Amino acid sequence: MLLPFAPLMKPPADTSAEQWLRRCVTAAERAPVEKAVRDDLVATLGIFSALAYDEAFVNQLIKEEIVQESTFFQHHLERATKRLEAETERRTQEALEQGLEQGLEQGLEQGLEQGAKKGAIEVILSFLSSKFQPRAVYALRPLLENIENLEQLKQLGSAAAEAESLETFLQTLGAQTNSQNGTDTP
Q1: What is the pLDDT of residues 79-135, one digit of tens each?
Q2: Could you tell me how far CA 126 lies from the centroid of its own chain?
Q3: Using an 8 Å Cβ cutoff, are 126 and 163 in contact?
Q4: Is the dihedral angle over the CA atoms 17, 22, 25, 28 positive or is it negative?
Q5: pTM of the full predicted structure?
Q6: Which of these, 30, 42, 31, 50, lies nearest to 67 by C-alpha position?
Q7: What is 67-87 written as a DSSP string?
């Protein structure tokens, strides 16, 4: 099906570029095929549309949920997740090694704790920056560095991996911070 390429074609004479893109998106969303195929059509149409149209306009027309359900997106998400896990493992190993060095200078126990904490923070930031705006994510570093409890950081690492939005993660972070400060302790 050539529908994803349609936005790259010249629109009919009586149709503006924006109207043409709307018609293309509507045609893809109504294509008489299985939902999974339709989601892939819409996702690839969005990719090609971004070559010729303003990205913000394309994002207004194409629902993010449809793109996220496409096999194309899922495939790339899986690949990115595997790369992220490998990078996270590497960074964790580096952080542990750095922590070990610091531990020899300042005391083995304190260094390992700091290295593990730094590694946990890097894991959290890596997970979040792969899914959300990296600039906003790295602004969280000072908040994460204020958390002393390694177990809380590990829990935040799991929350970062599962977070569907940065706001959801921030709520979890707020609850952890309140718990650490004793304002939420049972």
Answers
A1: 888 988 888 888 888 888 887 676 566 665 666 677 778 888 888 888 888 888 878
A2: 9
A3: no
A4: negative
A5: 0.42
A6: 42
A7: HHHSHHHHHHHHHHHHHHHHH
